[in-house]
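Following up on my earlier thread - several people asked me to post the actual chain instead of describing it. Fair enough. Here it is, all 109 residues.
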Amino acid sequence: MNSILKTIAAMTIGLSAVFMHSQATAAGANGKALYKAKNCITCHGKKGKSPLMAGYPKLAGQDKKYLVIQINDIKSGARSNSMTPVMKPNVAALSDEEISAIATYLSKQ
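Reply from S.P.:
Thanks for posting it. Predicted structure:
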């Protein structure tokens, strides 16, 4: 009986890991689509790696939590600089889930 419980526990843990990985992969794929659909590519370049103008930050490879905080700060007005007037309308309608998906995508680039 004990070995059956151990097997069930191991399978549960394994399936949980597969599920979590698939969720992260889905969020990244959705983030890629959102990054393009919301025109982020216009200023931050393909995959966030090559900003098109001086002063625009490189977003690729940044920590997901950092990106979420920065996007939310621009959205709320807590962050303000010469670039935020361009960003604010683009992030204003983003949901928390969309922000998370975009941040997941960019953090993996």
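Residues 2-107 form a domain with the Cytochrome Bc1 Complex; Chain D, domain 2 fold (CATH 1.10.760.10). That should answer part of your original question.
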